[in-house]
Design a protein that fits this description.
Layout (H helix, E strand, L loop, with lengths): L1 E5 L6 E5 L10 E10 L1 H8 L14 E9 L11 E3 L10 H4 L23 E4 L2 H4 L1 E2 L6 H4 L2 H15 L7 E5 L3 H12 L3 E6 L2 H9 L4 E4 L6 H8 L4 E6 L4 H9 L1 E9 L14 H6 L3 E4 L8 H9 L9 E6 L3 H4 L11 E6 L1
Parallel strand pairs: 8-9, 8-11, 9-10, 11-12, 12-13, 14-15
Antiparallel strand pairs: 1-2, 3-4, 3-6, 3-15, 4-5, 5-7
Protein backbone atom coordinates (compact mmCIF):
# COMPACT_ATOMS: atom_id res chain seq x y z
CA UNK A 1 0.00 0.00 0.00
CA UNK A 2 0.99 3.64 -0.38
CA UNK A 3 1.84 5.35 2.90
CA UNK A 4 3.55 8.41 4.36
CA UNK A 5 6.59 7.26 6.34
CA UNK A 6 9.33 8.77 8.49
CA UNK A 7 12.42 6.80 9.45
CA UNK A 8 13.87 9.21 12.03
CA UNK A 9 12.34 11.71 14.41
CA UNK A 10 12.27 15.19 12.89
CA UNK A 11 13.60 13.57 9.73
CA UNK A 12 12.34 13.57 6.15
CA UNK A 13 8.86 12.34 5.30
CA UNK A 14 8.35 10.32 2.15
CA UNK A 15 5.68 8.40 0.27
CA UNK A 16 6.58 4.70 0.19
CA UNK A 17 5.04 1.41 -0.82
CA UNK A 18 4.89 -0.77 2.29
CA UNK A 19 3.36 -4.09 3.29
CA UNK A 20 -0.43 -4.13 3.61
CA UNK A 21 -1.69 -4.69 7.19
CA UNK A 22 -3.49 -7.88 8.19
CA UNK A 23 -6.12 -8.13 10.93
CA UNK A 24 -5.59 -9.85 14.25
CA UNK A 25 -8.28 -12.28 15.40
CA UNK A 26 -10.05 -9.45 17.26
CA UNK A 27 -9.29 -6.74 14.71
CA UNK A 28 -10.07 -5.37 11.28
CA UNK A 29 -8.37 -3.72 8.35
CA UNK A 30 -9.94 -0.46 7.19
CA UNK A 31 -9.53 1.16 3.80
CA UNK A 32 -8.90 4.79 4.72
CA UNK A 33 -11.19 7.24 2.93
CA UNK A 34 -10.17 10.36 4.88
CA UNK A 35 -7.82 11.15 7.75
CA UNK A 36 -7.23 14.33 9.73
CA UNK A 37 -3.87 16.04 10.14
CA UNK A 38 -3.44 16.83 13.85
CA UNK A 39 -0.83 18.56 15.99
CA UNK A 40 -0.46 15.26 17.87
CA UNK A 41 0.98 13.84 14.64
CA UNK A 42 3.56 16.62 14.80
CA UNK A 43 4.38 15.69 18.41
CA UNK A 44 4.94 12.10 17.29
CA UNK A 45 7.22 13.15 14.43
CA UNK A 46 9.17 15.36 16.84
CA UNK A 47 9.90 12.34 19.07
CA UNK A 48 7.65 13.31 21.98
CA UNK A 49 5.89 9.92 22.17
CA UNK A 50 7.84 6.99 23.57
CA UNK A 51 5.47 4.42 22.04
CA UNK A 52 6.55 5.14 18.46
CA UNK A 53 8.95 2.69 16.85
CA UNK A 54 10.71 3.62 13.63
CA UNK A 55 10.08 3.50 10.73
CA UNK A 56 6.61 4.86 11.34
CA UNK A 57 3.35 5.82 9.64
CA UNK A 58 1.45 8.60 11.51
CA UNK A 59 -2.27 9.33 11.47
CA UNK A 60 -4.98 8.69 14.07
CA UNK A 61 -8.14 10.55 12.97
CA UNK A 62 -9.80 8.44 10.31
CA UNK A 63 -12.91 7.32 8.53
CA UNK A 64 -13.10 4.39 6.15
CA UNK A 65 -14.59 1.06 5.13
CA UNK A 66 -13.88 -2.36 6.66
CA UNK A 67 -12.20 -4.60 4.06
CA UNK A 68 -10.95 -7.47 6.28
CA UNK A 69 -12.26 -9.03 9.50
CA UNK A 70 -10.58 -11.09 12.20
CA UNK A 71 -12.46 -14.28 13.09
CA UNK A 72 -13.52 -12.98 16.52
CA UNK A 73 -15.14 -9.78 15.27
CA UNK A 74 -18.90 -10.11 15.65
CA UNK A 75 -20.35 -6.59 15.76
CA UNK A 76 -19.19 -5.44 12.32
CA UNK A 77 -19.01 -6.71 8.77
CA UNK A 78 -17.02 -6.07 5.61
CA UNK A 79 -18.33 -2.94 3.91
CA UNK A 80 -19.31 -1.10 7.10
CA UNK A 81 -18.37 2.58 7.18
CA UNK A 82 -16.60 3.22 10.46
CA UNK A 83 -14.49 5.58 12.51
CA UNK A 84 -12.54 5.01 15.70
CA UNK A 85 -11.44 7.05 18.74
CA UNK A 86 -7.71 7.70 18.84
CA UNK A 87 -7.47 5.85 22.18
CA UNK A 88 -8.48 2.22 21.67
CA UNK A 89 -9.22 0.05 24.70
CA UNK A 90 -8.58 -3.66 25.19
CA UNK A 91 -12.05 -4.19 26.62
CA UNK A 92 -10.94 -6.47 29.46
CA UNK A 93 -8.76 -4.47 31.90
CA UNK A 94 -10.23 -2.82 35.02
CA UNK A 95 -10.69 0.65 33.46
CA UNK A 96 -12.34 -0.87 30.37
CA UNK A 97 -14.67 -3.02 32.46
CA UNK A 98 -15.70 0.16 34.28
CA UNK A 99 -16.51 1.75 30.91
CA UNK A 100 -13.42 3.95 30.73
CA UNK A 101 -11.71 2.70 27.59
CA UNK A 102 -10.07 6.11 27.13
CA UNK A 103 -7.69 5.28 30.02
CA UNK A 104 -7.25 1.57 29.20
CA UNK A 105 -4.25 -0.07 30.88
CA UNK A 106 -3.29 -1.62 27.54
CA UNK A 107 -4.49 1.09 25.17
CA UNK A 108 -3.42 1.22 21.57
CA UNK A 109 -3.40 4.30 19.38
CA UNK A 110 -3.17 4.19 15.60
CA UNK A 111 -0.32 6.41 14.50
CA UNK A 112 1.49 5.95 17.81
CA UNK A 113 1.56 2.41 19.20
CA UNK A 114 1.27 1.01 15.67
CA UNK A 115 1.17 2.24 12.08
CA UNK A 116 -1.55 4.79 11.49
CA UNK A 117 -3.93 6.14 8.89
CA UNK A 118 -1.65 8.19 6.62
CA UNK A 119 -1.91 5.22 4.31
CA UNK A 120 -4.36 3.44 2.07
CA UNK A 121 -5.13 0.88 4.82
CA UNK A 122 -4.89 0.73 8.61
CA UNK A 123 -5.43 -2.08 11.13
CA UNK A 124 -7.45 -1.61 14.32
CA UNK A 125 -7.41 -4.10 17.22
CA UNK A 126 -10.31 -5.03 19.53
CA UNK A 127 -12.77 -3.95 16.89
CA UNK A 128 -15.89 -4.91 18.85
CA UNK A 129 -14.86 -2.45 21.58
CA UNK A 130 -13.46 0.40 19.51
CA UNK A 131 -15.19 0.80 16.16
CA UNK A 132 -18.06 3.22 15.59
CA UNK A 133 -20.49 2.78 12.71
CA UNK A 134 -20.97 5.96 10.74
CA UNK A 135 -24.49 7.10 9.83
CA UNK A 136 -25.15 7.91 6.18
CA UNK A 137 -25.77 11.56 7.08
CA UNK A 138 -22.09 12.06 8.02
CA UNK A 139 -19.59 11.92 5.15
CA UNK A 140 -16.04 10.59 5.37
CA UNK A 141 -14.32 13.99 5.44
CA UNK A 142 -16.47 15.22 8.32
CA UNK A 143 -16.07 11.90 10.16
CA UNK A 144 -12.29 12.19 9.88
CA UNK A 145 -12.38 15.32 12.06
CA UNK A 146 -13.97 13.47 14.97
CA UNK A 147 -11.50 10.84 16.17
CA UNK A 148 -9.17 13.04 18.21
CA UNK A 149 -9.83 16.75 18.48
CA UNK A 150 -13.62 16.80 18.32
CA UNK A 151 -14.32 13.84 20.59
CA UNK A 152 -11.70 15.03 23.07
CA UNK A 153 -13.37 18.45 23.18
CA UNK A 154 -16.84 16.92 23.39
CA UNK A 155 -15.96 14.80 26.41
CA UNK A 156 -14.03 17.68 28.01
CA UNK A 157 -16.98 20.08 27.72
CA UNK A 158 -19.88 17.69 28.24
CA UNK A 159 -18.67 14.88 30.54
CA UNK A 160 -15.73 16.40 32.39
CA UNK A 161 -16.74 20.07 32.49
CA UNK A 162 -20.50 19.43 32.72
CA UNK A 163 -21.07 22.74 30.96
CA UNK A 164 -24.67 23.93 30.90
CA UNK A 165 -26.58 26.93 29.60
CA UNK A 166 -25.51 30.16 31.25
CA UNK A 167 -22.06 28.94 32.27
CA UNK A 168 -19.07 31.07 31.42
CA UNK A 169 -16.34 28.98 29.81
CA UNK A 170 -12.85 30.12 28.79
CA UNK A 171 -11.01 28.26 26.04
CA UNK A 172 -7.28 28.88 25.86
CA UNK A 173 -6.00 28.11 22.36
CA UNK A 174 -8.13 28.11 19.21
CA UNK A 175 -6.63 25.34 17.16
CA UNK A 176 -8.65 22.24 16.27
CA UNK A 177 -9.37 21.28 19.88
CA UNK A 178 -10.17 24.81 20.99
CA UNK A 179 -12.44 25.62 18.06
CA UNK A 180 -14.25 22.32 18.55
CA UNK A 181 -14.77 23.23 22.20
CA UNK A 182 -16.10 26.67 21.21
CA UNK A 183 -18.70 25.08 18.94
CA UNK A 184 -19.74 22.45 21.49
CA UNK A 185 -19.97 24.87 24.43
CA UNK A 186 -21.97 27.32 22.36
CA UNK A 187 -24.38 24.54 21.36
CA UNK A 188 -24.96 23.87 25.06
CA UNK A 189 -25.86 27.52 25.67
CA UNK A 190 -22.65 28.57 27.43
CA UNK A 191 -21.08 32.02 27.17
CA UNK A 192 -17.75 31.31 25.52
CA UNK A 193 -14.57 33.36 25.92
CA UNK A 194 -11.95 32.34 23.33
CA UNK A 195 -8.27 33.20 23.82
CA UNK A 196 -5.54 32.91 21.17
CA UNK A 197 -2.62 34.84 19.69
CA UNK A 198 -3.96 34.76 16.13
CA UNK A 199 -6.72 37.18 15.09
CA UNK A 200 -7.84 34.92 12.23
CA UNK A 201 -8.40 32.05 14.66
CA UNK A 202 -10.29 34.38 16.99
CA UNK A 203 -12.47 35.54 14.10
CA UNK A 204 -13.33 31.91 13.36
CA UNK A 205 -14.02 31.33 17.06
CA UNK A 206 -16.53 34.21 16.95
CA UNK A 207 -18.19 32.70 13.89
CA UNK A 208 -18.48 29.38 15.76
CA UNK A 209 -20.18 30.96 18.78
CA UNK A 210 -17.62 32.66 21.02
CA UNK A 211 -19.29 35.63 22.72
CA UNK A 212 -15.95 37.27 23.57
CA UNK A 213 -12.45 36.89 22.14
CA UNK A 214 -9.08 37.91 23.60
CA UNK A 215 -5.79 38.17 21.75
CA UNK A 216 -3.26 36.97 24.32
CA UNK A 217 -0.40 38.58 22.42
CA UNK A 218 -1.79 42.09 22.82
CA UNK A 219 -3.73 41.91 26.09
CA UNK A 220 -1.73 42.94 29.17
CA UNK A 221 -3.65 41.16 31.93
CA UNK A 222 -5.48 38.22 30.43
CA UNK A 223 -6.68 36.77 33.73
CA UNK A 224 -8.22 39.99 35.00
CA UNK A 225 -9.79 40.64 31.59
CA UNK A 226 -11.47 37.22 31.64
CA UNK A 227 -12.66 37.75 35.22
CA UNK A 228 -14.12 41.12 34.25
CA UNK A 229 -16.05 39.63 31.33
CA UNK A 230 -17.31 36.69 33.41
CA UNK A 231 -18.30 38.60 36.55
CA UNK A 232 -15.55 37.20 38.77
CA UNK A 233 -14.26 34.21 36.86
CA UNK A 234 -15.44 31.43 34.58
CA UNK A 235 -17.21 28.27 35.69
CA UNK A 236 -15.11 26.06 33.41
CA UNK A 237 -11.80 26.71 31.68
CA UNK A 238 -10.05 24.55 29.10
CA UNK A 239 -6.35 24.58 28.21
CA UNK A 240 -6.72 23.47 24.61
CA UNK A 241 -3.11 24.24 23.69
CA UNK A 242 -0.91 22.67 26.33
CA UNK A 243 1.71 25.13 27.57
CA UNK A 244 2.88 26.35 30.97
CA UNK A 245 1.30 29.75 30.32
CA UNK A 246 -2.09 28.55 29.09
CA UNK A 247 -2.32 25.99 31.89
CA UNK A 248 -1.60 28.64 34.56
CA UNK A 249 -4.02 31.14 33.04
CA UNK A 250 -6.75 28.54 32.70
CA UNK A 251 -6.60 27.75 36.41
CA UNK A 252 -6.13 31.35 37.56
CA UNK A 253 -9.16 32.69 35.64
CA UNK A 254 -11.65 30.42 37.43
CA UNK A 255 -14.33 31.58 39.83
CA UNK A 256 -14.66 29.82 43.19
CA UNK A 257 -15.29 26.07 42.78
CA UNK A 258 -14.58 26.33 39.07
CA UNK A 259 -13.16 23.54 36.92
CA UNK A 260 -9.96 23.54 34.89
CA UNK A 261 -9.88 20.88 32.14
CA UNK A 262 -6.46 19.99 30.74
CA UNK A 263 -6.85 18.85 27.15
CA UNK A 264 -3.79 20.23 25.36
CA UNK A 265 -0.85 17.82 25.36
CA UNK A 266 1.95 18.85 27.73
CA UNK A 267 5.40 17.89 26.42
CA UNK A 268 9.04 18.76 26.97
CA UNK A 269 9.59 21.57 29.47
CA UNK A 270 5.82 22.02 29.81
CA UNK A 271 5.17 18.60 31.37
CA UNK A 272 5.37 19.87 34.97
CA UNK A 273 4.10 23.46 34.88
CA UNK A 274 3.81 25.92 37.73
CA UNK A 275 0.19 26.25 38.86
CA UNK A 276 -1.52 28.59 41.39
CA UNK A 277 -2.05 25.92 44.04
CA UNK A 278 -2.91 28.58 46.63
CA UNK A 279 -6.00 29.45 44.59
CA UNK A 280 -6.83 25.78 44.03
CA UNK A 281 -6.96 25.31 47.79
CA UNK A 282 -8.62 28.56 48.85
CA UNK A 283 -11.25 28.54 46.11
CA UNK A 284 -11.86 24.76 46.00
CA UNK A 285 -10.95 24.56 42.33
CA UNK A 286 -11.02 21.31 40.39
CA UNK A 287 -8.20 20.25 38.04
CA UNK A 288 -9.35 17.58 35.64
CA UNK A 289 -7.69 15.77 32.75
CA UNK A 290 -9.53 14.71 29.61
CA UNK A 291 -8.14 12.07 27.27
CA UNK A 292 -10.28 11.12 24.30
CA UNK A 293 -13.73 9.51 24.45
CA UNK A 294 -15.03 5.96 24.48
CA UNK A 295 -16.55 4.51 21.30
CA UNK A 296 -19.82 3.66 23.04
CA UNK A 297 -20.24 7.32 24.00
CA UNK A 298 -20.37 8.51 20.37
CA UNK A 299 -24.17 8.26 19.79
CA UNK A 300 -25.05 11.49 21.66
CA UNK A 301 -22.48 13.43 19.65
CA UNK A 302 -23.44 11.80 16.35
CA UNK A 303 -27.10 12.66 16.97
CA UNK A 304 -26.19 16.31 17.54
CA UNK A 305 -24.23 16.28 14.27
CA UNK A 306 -27.04 14.62 12.32
CA UNK A 307 -29.63 17.15 13.52
CA UNK A 308 -27.32 20.10 12.81
CA UNK A 309 -26.77 21.18 16.42
CA UNK A 310 -23.06 20.53 15.88
CA UNK A 311 -21.40 21.14 12.51
CA UNK A 312 -17.80 19.88 12.65
CA UNK A 313 -17.46 20.34 8.89
CA UNK A 314 -17.23 24.09 9.58
CA UNK A 315 -13.88 23.43 11.26
CA UNK A 316 -12.30 22.13 8.05
CA UNK A 317 -10.02 24.64 6.39
CA UNK A 318 -9.13 22.46 3.41
CA UNK A 319 -8.65 18.95 2.10
CA UNK A 320 -5.20 17.86 0.97
CA UNK A 321 -3.48 14.85 -0.61
CA UNK A 322 -1.19 12.36 1.11
CA UNK A 323 1.71 13.98 -0.77
CA UNK A 324 0.72 17.41 0.57
CA UNK A 325 1.13 16.08 4.11
CA UNK A 326 4.88 15.75 3.53
CA UNK A 327 5.15 19.52 3.94
CA UNK A 328 2.01 20.12 6.03
CA UNK A 329 2.90 17.85 8.94
CA UNK A 330 6.23 19.48 9.91
CA UNK A 331 4.50 22.88 9.85
CA UNK A 332 1.73 21.91 12.30
CA UNK A 333 3.47 23.80 15.10
CA UNK A 334 3.49 27.14 13.27
CA UNK A 335 -0.20 27.73 14.11
CA UNK A 336 -0.78 29.24 10.67
CA UNK A 337 -3.79 27.07 9.91
CA UNK A 338 -7.27 28.47 10.50
CA UNK A 339 -9.03 25.17 11.08
CA UNK A 340 -8.43 21.52 10.28
CA UNK A 341 -6.76 19.88 7.30
CA UNK A 342 -8.07 16.50 6.11
CA UNK A 343 -6.28 14.10 3.76
CA UNK A 344 -8.79 12.60 1.33
CA UNK A 345 -6.60 11.75 -1.67
CA UNK A 346 -4.22 8.81 -1.55
Amino acid sequence: MKALVYESFQGPLSIQNVTDPTPKENGVVIQVKATGLCRSDWHGWMGHDQDIELPHIPGHELAGVIVELGKNVSNFKIGDRVTVPFVCGCGTCAPCISGNHQVCDHQSQPGFTHWGSFAEYVSIDYANTNLVKLPNEINDITAATLGCRFITSFRAVVAQGKVTAGHYIAIHGCGGIGLSAVMIANALGAQVIAIDINDDNLKLASELGATNTINAATTKNIIEHIKSISNGGVHVSIDALGSATTCFNSIANLRKQGKHIQVGLMTGDHQHPKIPMDQVLANELEIIGSHGMQAYKYPEMLTMIKNGTLQPERLIQKTISLEDAITALPNMNTFDNKGMQVINSF
